[in-house]
Amino acid sequence: MQMTLALVESAINRFLAMDLEAAELIAPLEGKLIGILPRAVDEPICCLISGARIEVITQPQRTPDLVVAGNLLDLVRLGTVGSPESLMRERDITMSGDVEVARSVKVMLHRFQPDWEESLSRVVGDVLARRIAVGIRSIAEWTNESRESLTATLSEALTEEKRVLPTRLRYQQHLAAVEQVRDDSDRLMVRVDQLLSRSVKAGEQ
């Protein structure tokens, strides 16, 4: 267990190091104890913010200032998505505890920008890392453009449908107009019959 927590601590700090401004972002949380509670775990993993680093505390002497709970993979994704708050709403990730600490965590997650290209370059070299990063950005841009195009198309279709489909008021007005035309037609036919009848009588005389 101790080795596992040490690996967790190392992974979190390596991830934080991917953003050169991480120290500034995490500064408002200095000295705070944050609990991370995956759904399958009974007790939160407590992390102390100290000197722009995360220190996993196995036996905390106080309750966490904030507990972040959710599915493990969703908790990991919090630091990688563009809109952490949207992910929290969609995946039912909760924060309980100090309101100000929760606000600071949300700000940090929102502003956190890991440099994936720099991290990749340490493993595969600058050239390949740049190509991989360009490919990832292209896919992301295509996804965003596709989503915007689909939204625009649906919006246009719904707008057009609104113009084509009658509202209840327009439908009622149309029915009233049809009734009026039918009544006028009936009166006209009666009038025509009367005129024909008179013409026939006049001819007989």
Structural write-up:
Helix content is 64%, strand content 13%. The chain contains 8 helices and 5 strands. With 205 residues, the chain is of the alpha+beta class. The chain has a 5-stranded mixed β-sheet. The termini are far apart. It has helices at 2-16, 22-26, 72-77, 84-90, 99-111, 116-124, 126-164, 168-204; strands spanning 33-38, 45-50, 53-57, 66-70, 94-97. A hairpin with a 6-residue loop joins strand 1 (33-38) and strand 2.
Fold topology:
Layout: H1 2-16, H2 22-26, E1 33-38, E2 45-50, E3 53-57, E4 66-70, H3 72-77, H4 84-90, E5 94-97, H5 99-111, H6 116-124, H7 126-164, H8 168-204
Parallel strand pairs: 1-4
Antiparallel strand pairs: 1-2, 2-3, 4-5
Helix pairs in contact: 6-7
The total beta strand count reads 5
What is the 3D shape?
rod-shaped
User: Which oligomerization state do the chains in this entry correspond to?
Assistant: single chain
Strand order of the largest sheet: 3-2-1-4-5
Cα(first) to Cα(last) distance is 121 Å
Instruction: State the major sheet.
Output: 5 strands, mixed
Q: What is the SS-derived class?
A: alpha+beta
Estimate what percentage of residues fall within beta strands. Answer: 5-15%
Q: What is the alpha-carbon Rg in Å?
A: 35 Å
Which parts are unreliable, with pLDDT below 50 for 5 consecutive residues or more? none
* Mean of residue pLDDT values: 75
